Amino acid sequence: MSSAGVNGEAGADLGGIHRFVVFGDICGSGTLDMAEKKLQRTAMYAAFDDAYSSVGVEPGTFHQEDRGDGILAALRPDVPPTLMVGRWIDTLYESLRAHNRGRARPLRLRIGMNAGLVVQDRHGLVGRAVDLAARLCDSPPAKRIMNEAPEVDLLVVVSDWLYVNVVAEGGRYVEPDHYRQARIRSKETDEAAWFHVPRRPAPPLVGPEPAAGPQGEPEGEPAGEPTGGSRTGVGPSRGDGPTPRTGGGNRTYHVGGDLLDVHGNTIHGGFTGIRKSAAPGAGEAE
Question: Among 77, 83, 183, 281, which residue has the least CB neighbours within 10 Å?
Answer without folding.
Answer: 281
